[in-house]
Amino acid sequence: MNLLHSITDTHTKGKHLSFENRVEIQTLRKEGYSMRAIARKLNCSPSTIKYEIDRGTVTLYNGNVKRYHAKAGQEAYNRHRLNSGRKPHYLLKKHFIDYVQEHFFNSGWSLDACVGRSLATGLFTRNQIVCTRTLYRYVDSGLLQIQNTDLPEKLTRNTKTKRIRANKKKLGRSIEDRPKYIDQRKEFGHWECDLVLGHKTKDDEVLLTLYERMTRKFMIVPIPDKTAGSVMTAFNNLKAQYQEHWNEVFKTVTTDNGSEFADLSQLEDISNTLVYYAHPYTSCDKGGVECHNRLIRRFIPKGEYVKNYSLDDIFSIELWINDLPRKVLSYHTPDELFERRLDSIYRI
């Protein structure tokens, strides 16, 4: 018995054919076995034998004879295996990866903002980038210079149950009276308001923060202390800045029941602005400004004196926040949309 007839390797159904199986196919074909008969002997599907014979058939004698060769079948199998499976895009799309890392570290963009902004501006095409999920997988795999500890939202984000607690004074009109269409964020001019404290002492400044619900525009106004008088002075200064357009820019303001906002309802006496107060102990009623306050904490941690930061420092923080591309804004920035709205108001 020659070598081709001494093959004893048994094929396992569902597995790839081995070189020994291919030698057996070559031998059986030479002996005149049909494809179905070979399939029964190798314990596999007749389709598997057909496809294998098609891949491993070579032409002999100037193309006059076609014959299956085990070696040709194995070479075809090896070529196909090289092209099978998912290919990592990390090296192929290195230019985009460098773009992501540059804007992540230098501009403070999120990974999703890098993906969306690159497409929105036409800097990259869809085939030149990887998706947001893939970028996060690269971070987990250690392929990027970015680490999970560099992603502040990934490690801290959680969802809290909404609770409406009673037994706290209400300073004015309840948020329950606010028109429902404001929740849809389709109309410009509806704001949320809060305070950000530093060292929590009377000798430190505080930050008055304002958030426009439609454009996500965020304002930071340093004030001397946490008193109702200082808050009202800041609003009066804003009113003087926008002058006759105040009522179109500030249609409503939603804030909490802190004593520092006790006089805020006076805006209704001097303008058409309506002031709404959130439910007691329910910060999610003004979740937009609360989330943006957390962005401030990346630069001014809790417990640090706000007065140690200059106006330029505060302005730089505000500028960075408003220049962040947002997925919810189709990767435009809050500043871009806010300026468009102001332009349309001032043209009237």
TrEMBL record:
Location of the Integrase catalytic domain: 175-342
The keyword Lipid metabolism is assigned to this record: no
Gene Ontology, cellular component aspect: cytosol
Biological process (GO), any one: transposition
Alphabetic keyword roster: DNA recombination
One Pfam family, short name: HTH_38
Molecular function GO labels: nucleic acid binding; transposase activity
Keyword Transferase: no
PANTHER family according to UniProt: TRANSPOSASE, TRANSPOSASE INSI FOR INSERTION SEQUENCE ELEMENT IS30A-RELATED
Name of the protein described by the UniProt record: IS30 family transposase
